[in-house]
Description:
The protein has helices at residues 5-20, 24-35, 41-54, 59-82, 87-100, 106-117. By secondary structure, it is an all-alpha fold.
Amino acid sequence: MILNEPEAKTLLEAGRQHEAEGHPCCAYWVYRQASQLAPAPSAYKAQARFEELQKVPNILALAEACREMQQCHKLYARGERILPLDPQRARELFAEVARRTPADSEIHRAAQRQLDATVQ
Length: 120
């Protein structure tokens, strides 16, 4: 078995799927992660695709915005989980999501609805 190949292959396929779905920003991070699993053959393929994506204008800015939105989705989900146990902390998380996301995004609107529903 080639070192790291199963994980690298899974990541390479995930990156390709992201691209097929029109999400090159997500693919960027997946290819980057996969490329770090050399000497796996799939890691080298991911590295090549990562290098190609780096040539796309504004890809880094898009990828950073994508990562920020992913983090905000995680914060929102955490807020939902802890809402029954710690409403104050959940409110803080929803407020952070609302602060960090564009006002026209669905996650921002959802966080704002949670804030409105948990008015103290």
